[in-house]
Amino acid sequence: MLRYAGGRELTLGDLGTREGLLGGINAVIVGNYLTTLGRPATADLNLLVELNMPIKELQKTL
């Protein structure tokens, strides 16, 4: 299991996030994290839609 979490915006940027998802990342933490501000959840969700990747679970609080 490979997961993306806090800090990916700073270390990988948008291109790294896209390439990681295409390369096999199968879990993504979206929004703000405990110690790091993240991208808006809608940005990550839009990217998943753009890449035609299914979303297994989504909280109704987004």
Distance between the termini: 24 Å
Shape: globular
Overall structural class, as computed from helix and strand content, comes to mainly alpha
Number of domains: 1
Strand fraction: 5-15%
Largest sheet: 2 strands, parallel
Summed up, the helix count is 3
Spatial strand arrangement across the major sheet: 1-2
Task: Write up this protein.
This protein is mainly alpha-helical and 62 residues long. It is built from three helices and two strands; from the N terminus they run βααβα. The protein has one domain (3-50). It has helices at 8-11, 13-23, 41-50; strands spanning 3-4, 27-28. The radius of gyration is 11 Å and the shape is globular. The protein starts with a strand and ends in a 12-residue tail after the last helix. The mean pLDDT is 75.
Short description:
The chain is mainly alpha-helical.
Write the layout of secondary structure elements.
Elements lengths: L2 E2 L3 H4 L1 H11 L3 E2 L12 H10 L12
Parallel strand pairs: 1-2
